Amino acid sequence: MELKVGIIKGDGIGPEIVTEAMKVLNKVGEVYGHSYLYKELLLGGASIDVHGVPLTDETIAEAKSCDAVLMGSIGGDAKVSPWYKLEPSKRPEAGLLKIRKSLNLFANLRPAVLYDELKGACPLKEELTEGGFDMMIMRELTGGLYFGNRYTSEVDGVMTACDELTYNENEIRRIAIRAFDIAMKRNKKVISVDKANVLDSSRLWRKVVEEVAKDYPEVTLEHMLVDNCAMQLVKNPKQFDVILTENMFGDILSDEASMITGSIGMLASASLNDTKFGLYEPSGGSAPDIAGKGIANPIATILSAAMMLRFSFDLDKEADAIEAAVAQVLKDGYRTIDIMSEGKVQVNTAEIGNLICERIA
Ligand code: IPM
Ligand code: MG
Description:
The chain is an alpha/beta fold.
């Protein structure tokens, strides 16, 4: 099979981690008989440097012409990078939001799994994580505060800023349906997270989610307030199967969930629309402080590539092979610095990529 894959290396550690994921994809291609047509696309700071804007219309069209896009990370250090002297709509992050919206990537899947081998890197007490945990955060990605009207201006002589949080029932319904569909393939439990004790958007969210739930009698639905969810994630992470939530809450909770898996360098993600197309990226940022040092953990990007094979190309066997190779490397005691613990062997970005490739046969 020939896979047409857009590649966004991006900024910071992006190029280093994407290079390793491409190595792994190429190895899978060799072993399982697939070839790739890679198309390099510019997004974020890398695009600003060349085109003056974080995402061009041509790049959107090129991304649409691919079957899937694999991405590293975008953005720089706001304190020193010239990208942040530009107005907000021209900064790297604006490019990321624009590509999500332009490709209608409303469903963001962020799995947070505690590998047995990484128990030592999890900051929680062992008794809380005994037996591990495995949750899927379903984050709505094209609505809410990220895409509402916003302004900063003087109102009655006082500087005032506003960000609007809007959801319509259709936007809520389509992400809820995705969450329930995924729950059916997992442990059949959805926890929908909102702030319905305060926000109208959350009250509508709850109502629509309850309607959708009626079509899934086998799935248990629970509602949880977002502040409570933040607490429950560190108190009892094992209770979660699928977490369904809006854009901003999902952004925050997924970072929290990633930390209890040991490192944000482990958390993959898939952003999907209603076709087979997807944008696959690690949940972590561009980590400009360690960029170019060759020490970044590429595992989240490699696992994102596995999600790409699974969701966009239906190549389950190949995706399983990547996930098994990652687990084996961890079992064999190899660690990048972010997940290093006593008695393990510390390796760099390229070395862990090679070790994963060696375990795909
Ligand atoms: C993420 C990131 C982005 C977001 C930033 C870079 C705009 O934090 O993918 O979680 O907030 O969605
Ligand atoms: Mg985030």
